[in-house]
Amino acid sequence: MLKHTPLNATHRELGAKMVDFGGWDMPVNFGSQIEEHHAVRAGCGLFDVSHMLPLDIKGANARAFLRRLVANNVDKLLVPGKALYSCMLNEAGGVIDDLIIYFMDENWFRLVVNAGSAEKDLAWIEKCNTDWGMGLTLIPRRDLAMIAIQGPDATRVLNEALPGVDSLTASLKPFSAAAMGEMLIARTGYTGENGFEAMVLAKSAPFFWKALMEAGGKPIGLGARDTLRLEAGMNLYGQDMDETTSPLESGLAWTVDLKTERDFVGRKALESSEVTQQLVGLVLLDKGVLRSHQKVFTKNGGGEITSGTFSPTLQQSIALARIPLGIAPDDEIEVEIRDKKLRAKVVKYPFVRNGKVLI
């Protein structure tokens, strides 16, 4: 049986097309996927991301535990509400998951992990907690719903839906969060636009969603979420990286702290491995559509598209691809599409941020 978010009935009332997304019954669109994409770039879109798992880690050793667990350095988190993006690696340096860590206080950190890997992540974290003798309490917060409010009009929509919240959001910087009772409002997102991700009690989610819609937010499905995140050059776990790939070959070297002497799971493997590949952006020059797993041919050898789509903003096909080192922006490569080799240009991603085309 598929799992349901607290907003499942709301989506069905709105006429959403529902699909099986990693075992969750989720809306792929509420009408036109293209219109939903443009609604986020031009106004404000609402996303149900309650399938993702908030996980509270509590105890005196919480910071020490996370220092060892993830590749980025949680010692950067000094102010309550501050957030950090990181990969959690296995001993071979492969990516178990990418996640966001929120610093609540010295005895309490909150992780948000991907839906498809939530159970695997939880088992890994529990194992590390036991093996390292940390004595931490792990609390999966399935009592919370998550709603993303994204787009240039997101601040106005949120402030109108929650009168008085502007006293918190006005000074909230990107990758920071503030608590409002049981609610946590973060300046984070997966679209490349201004916006927020709000964690609220599950029972309150339908009322909050309705208030956001009444303020002008448009419901957006998974289809537009994927085209938006790809335009923004944001990795998708399971496509652009996984347990067989290193963050150093996935465009995520900036999330790995190798400058300090802090030891973490996977560090030795990263330091001893030879980086031979890179993640780049592609724009298709010929007619066609780039899709994941298509073969890429370069002067330095072969590669593969990890994520590809037709970009509604650019009106052409774009992709992320893992290819050999030595290929630079503006170089031309070839992509095999339906047994034909089509021309594509290497570009530096992101393709679009804050409504602006960057390539």
Features:
359 residues, alpha+beta, 6-stranded antiparallel β-barrel, 34% strand, globular, 2 domains, Elongation Factor Tu (Ef-tu), domain 3, 21 strands, single chain, 6-stranded mixed sheet, 9 helices, Gyrase A, domain 2, 21% helix
Entry summary:
The protein is of the alpha+beta class and 359 residues long. The protein has helices at residues 8-13, 33-42, 62-69, 118-131, 154-161, 166-169, 205-214, 222-231, 267-272, and strands spanning 17-21, 24-29, 45-48, 53-58, 83-89, 95-105, 108-113, 137-140, 144-150, 177-180, 183-186, 195-201, 218-219, 277-284, 295-298, 301-311, 316-324, 332-337, 340-347, 352-353, 356-357.
Task: Give a structural overview.
It contains nine helices and 21 strands. The chain is about 20% helix and about 35% strand. Strands 10-11-12-9-3-13 form a six-stranded mixed sheet. A six-stranded antiparallel β-barrel has the order 14-17-16-15-18-19. It is globular and about 55 Å long. The model has no long low-confidence stretch (mean pLDDT about 95). It is of the alpha+beta class. The protein has two domains: about 1-235, Probable tRNA modification gtpase trme, domain 1 (Gyrase A, domain 2, 2-Layer Sandwich); about 275-355, Beta Barrel (Elongation Factor Tu (Ef-tu), domain 3), CATH 2.40.30.110. A hairpin with a 5-residue loop joins strand 5 and strand 6 (about 95-105).
